[in-house]
Design a protein that fits this description.
Structural class: mainly alpha
CATH superfamily of the largest domain: UbiA prenyltransferase
Radius of gyration: 20 Å
Shape: flat
CATH class of the largest domain: Mainly Alpha
CATH topology of the largest domain: Tetracycline Repressor, domain 2
Order of helices and strands: HHHHHHHHHHHHHHHHH
């Protein structure tokens, strides 16, 4: 770990740019990713069996958000060298010279420890333990190991982004239940088609940075087939909440229609006649998949929050 820190800390930066302002540190938190974490954790809290005081729920969500931001900061600290080589990430605070690697590392570690301690105190230590594991998984298992060593980086590493609903459920119940596991699996299956669709478009960037993303390792054709397979699995599994009584008719409609939309775009990617067409369909998948995940989780949130769930016959 010491050698890893020295590697990142030794990157040359414009001396006059060191220090950063509030906006630079906020950018380290990956706010767009953080917003998704907050939202999915909130759904985990709402669908969990039992009740929780609103103040505890709010404080817990804040701690989870800070933990997610800590993961982002540590990821940017570690990935500063490859971020500098990619057009999508070259203007991040560290490669752009606005924050030093040492500052980013200290910031991320402080937020990691603080968020876990706060969640343990205001909620319970099971939820805090899950948050600590999520930070470790994203910063160490994914960023330091998987990302640069295997084309399955997104598949396995995607678990880090799927943990928030489980943490949310643990905040309420103090344990890990079926609701959190089902939501975890939806996000886990969603991650590969979402990111591989973008990776097809940004393949040259990843190749230049030496990151073994699926299109660079297995090729475009194989990536298209795997996007199709994961999308079908996602569309089918997303119906499970309705089958087990966790979601109602409104959720079923949203999940079914959204799943058909996802499969339709995946089919266009699979059958694209040339690289330009596949890239166009890939960007459609990247954008639509965000709307899809938001829609299915919003449907669950609305049904459970507003009490408007129309019961469906349970299959199990």
């Amino acid at each position: 770990m010491s050698a890893a820190f020295d590697k990142a800390a030794d990157q040359s930066l414009p001396a006059s740019s060191v220090g950063g302002d509030v906006g630079d540190y906020f950018q380290l938190l990956k706010p767009r990713v953080m917003s998704l974490v907050i939202f999915t954790a909130l759904v985990g809290i709402v669908v969990a069996p039992g009740t929780i005081h609103p103040v505890i729920a709010f404080a817990s969500l804040l701690a989870i958000a800070v933990g997610a931001g800590a993961s982002g900061a540590l990821n940017m600290w570690w990935d500063a060298d490859i971020d500098a080589l990619m057009t999508r990430t070259a203007k991040r605070p560290i490669p752009d010279g606005r924050i030093t690697p040492k500052e980013a590392f200290a910031f991320g570690m402080a937020l990691s420890v603080g968020s876990v301690l706060v969640l343990g105190v205001v909620a319970n230590w099971v939820a805090a333990g899950l948050l600590a594991f999520t930070i470790f998984f994203y910063a160490v298992v994914y960023s330091m190991w998987l990302k640069r060593s295997t084309a399955q980086n997104i598949v396995i590493g995607g678990a880090a982004g799927a943990f928030p609903p489980m943490i949310g459920e643990a905040v309420v119940t103090g344990n890990i239940g079926w609701a959190g596991f089902v939501l975890f699996t939806i996000i886990f299956l969603w991650t590969p088609p979402h990111f591989w669709a973008l990776a097809m478009v940004k393949a040259k960037d990843y190749e230049r940075a030496g990151v073994p993303m699926m299109p660079n390792v297995a090729g475009d054709a194989s990536t298209r087939r795997q996007i199709m397979a994961y999308t079908i699995a996602l569309a089918l599994f997303a119906l499970v909440p309705a089958a087990i009584g966790m979601g109602g008719a409104a959720y079923l409609a949203v999940a079914a229609l959204g799943g058909l939309g996802m499969v339709g775009i995946a089919w266009r990617i699979l059958k694209a006649p040339d690289l330009e067409a596949s890239h166009k369909a890939g960007m459609q998948m990247f954008g639509f998949s965000i709307l899809y995940l938001f829609a299915v989780f919003s449907a669950l949130l609305a049904e459970h929050s507003l009490g408007v769930m129309w019961a469906l016959p349970r299959l199990v």
